[in-house]
Description:
It is a single chain. Helices cover 26% and strands 26% of the residues. The chain is α+β, with helices and mostly antiparallel strands and 189 residues long. The chain has one domain (17-188): Peptide Deformylase (Alpha-Beta Complex). The strands form two sheets. It has a five-stranded antiparallel beta sheet. It has a three-stranded antiparallel beta sheet with strand order 4-5-8. The chain contains three helices and eight strands.
Amino acid sequence: xxxxxxxxxxxxxxxxxxxxxxxxxxxxxxxxxxxxxxxxxxxxxxxxxxxxxxxxxxxxxxxxxxxxxxxxxxxxxxxxxxxxxxxxxxxxxxxxxxxxxxxxxxxxxxxxxxxxxxxxxxxxxxxxxxxxxxxxxxxxxxxxxxxxxxxxxxxxxxxxxxxxxxxxxxxxxxxxxxxxxxxxxxxxx
Length: 189
């Protein structure tokens, strides 16, 4: 099997109208244009140390996103998974339990927000081979899925912040993470 390599794409920034539109259903999942977009999205998200990216974030108003959780400088504790395409997703059900945690967005660089998300979700989507799948995601991967699903609905993570006091700069977020790691290391010793 040959390794796919896509092109790196420009990322739309907060304020661009494509980010506020409800994305269109993908009709030809196996078509060359869609397959190329998937390759490009994977290359782009991995290049910028993201854990997910939606097609609207690269100026394509289509119901596609990539789940690409992996430990990186932006999310050092992210679980490792192979990047995968999520096409025409539906969230079937949500857990009642919600948890607030920090999120960032490639389309809003330099800002993090404390966002409430459902702990687990049951979803249905088509993969890049055209197979319809049903899955359950929880914890961090459920958070990524909900964040990227929001992109397909024209919703940005800052729309979900409960208070403007829950927004911080990336620099302050990194300081918090470093401080948190130091505290945990001391507690373990």
